[in-house]
Amino acid sequence: MKLHILSIIMAMVSLTACASCTTDNDEPIKEEQGTENPEPNPEPSTGSEGKVLVAYFSCTNTTKGVAETVAGIAGGELFRIEPETPYTSADLDYNSDCRANREQNNPAARPAIKNKIENLKDYEIVFIGYPIWWGEAPRIISTFLESGDFKGKTIIPFCTSHSSGIGNSDRNLYSLAPEAEWKTGRRFGGNTTKSDIENWIAGLGITFNKDNNMDYANFPLSEGKNGQAPTIRLSSGYDMPIVGLGTYSLTGDVCVNSVKSAISLGFRKIDTAHMYGNEVEVGKGVRESGVPREEIFVATKIYPNQYSNPEAAIEECLRKLDIGYVDLMLLHHPGTNDVKAYKAMEKYVAQGKIRSIGVSCYYIDEIDEFIKQVNIKPVLVQNEVHPYYQDTKVVPHIQNLGIAVEAWYPLGGRGHQKELLNDPVLKEIADAHNKSVAQVILRWDLQRGVVVIPGSSNPAHMKENISIFDFELSDEEMSRIAALNRNEKHDWY
């Protein structure tokens, strides 16, 4: 997972910087408070939203850095608001009777904008970013809002500042586009990380259509190297490694040490579940790994016997893992009240406690019916997939829905592992590449666009499982493996 600290160092020597610092006239910091007249809508939106625009004004490129990150997470297009007359250093000298001071002291000031959005009507969601100038948005933001028709659009403000909160800035903008739906704004300071921005956007409760450009049948395998799996962008906007550690049957200290070993070998995804009984140990392994939490992708699942009281199940999971938030939570398989449980997970997404949600053991009929009943489309379906049960119709169907597919027990699991690892066709292909049969199977999955989470407590096997990026199966080899399909499904669901 590629989470990087933003270089948002507020080295400001102009008004853009200094005016964002606390003054006698500034309000106290109010980063999480809503504003009034009108009240922003805190409720999660239903369904997927449309095209996203990230418009921003930035003199020192601080707001630009945040805007670029917002656009990357939300799948938005960037638009820089450029003044017709650029601001000079003298214009931003807040200690003088400068241009910026005169504009901020005049609520009617409307600095002209050099550029224009010709296709504003095509965007349904508009993020608006700006620095704080004396507790307000620069007047050019007012120009921008008055220059277009925002009726029916969702507007989400954000600002940058050393120490001031968003203050009155978003409140005073509402009246300029009263027929828009305004979401609660957010101020970002000098120590802002990508993770901070991701959590804020997740908490908006909006499902962004970012999966249109992601081909879930074709992974960026060339970006990987042994010991470092590439990532894919989930429809939630978060990046997930395509190789992880499965922890089924790992318990106690063995589980803790296995998680730590896997992370030390380059794994950045760990899969667990309530049913495995090892969430406490997985969480401990993550915390003791020495790798920052935000670099590790942790997935878990709640079980059907928990669906009747899903909030309690989710809280139990969060408590046991004790890692702040869950990167991915799945329904373990269909069951009574599964829609109820999933909608509870949606609420936790809005709170930022769960980042992405999905399901496990859902096939064509199940997934098609399920997505009609929920607000957030599952980002991933985890199913039984291996060379003897290839799920040939289900896998592409799910991928075509813009949903990632993940194989549990990719090496054959409880029913087929021994036989599969000794299959003569697979052994022949493995020998040709000087690889193990396990490596060939995992590589076959990845070349089909199927995420893998092989389980192991053996560091040597773990290293082997993540060393699959220095070879490629030919079309002929892929066809030979495809011919091994028996449609033999081990588990009943």
List keywords for this structure.
493 residues, alpha/beta, Rossmann fold, TIM Barrel, 2 domains, 8-stranded parallel sheet, 6-stranded parallel sheet, 17 helices, 16 strands, 31% helix, elongated, disordered N terminus
The major sheet is characterized as: 8 strands, parallel
Q: Under the CATH scheme, which class of the largest domain?
A: Alpha Beta
> What is the number of strand segments?
16
Rg over CA atoms, rounded to whole Å, is: 25 Å
Question: Helical stretch count?
Answer: 17
Strand order of the largest sheet: 9-10-11-12-13-14-15-16
Summarize the structure.
This protein is an alpha/beta fold and 493 residues long.
Task: Walk me through the structure.
By secondary structure, the protein is of the alpha/beta class. It folds into 2 domains: 15-203, Rossmann fold (3-Layer(aba) Sandwich); 216-482, NADP-dependent oxidoreductase domain (TIM Barrel), CATH 3.20.20. Helix content is 31%, strand content 14%. It is built from 17 helices and 16 strands. It has helices at residues 15-18, 62-74, 99-104, 139-146, 169-174, 194-203, 252-264, 279-287, 310-321, 338-350, 364-371, 394-400, 413-421, 424-433, 437-447, 459-465, 475-482, and strands at 52-56, 77-80, 125-131, 154-160, 181-182, 186-188, 231-233, 239-241, 245-246, 269-271, 297-302, 326-331, 354-360, 380-384, 404-408, 450-452. It has an 8-stranded parallel sheet with strand order 9-10-11-12-13-14-15-16. Strands 1, 2, 3, 4, 5 and 6 form a 6-stranded parallel sheet that branches. Strand 9, helix 7 and strand 10 (269-271) form a beta-alpha-beta unit. The longest helix has 13 residues, at 62-74. It is elongated and about 80 Å long. The chain starts with 14 loop residues before the first helix and ends in an 11-residue tail after the last helix. Mean pLDDT is 86; it is low at 1-48.
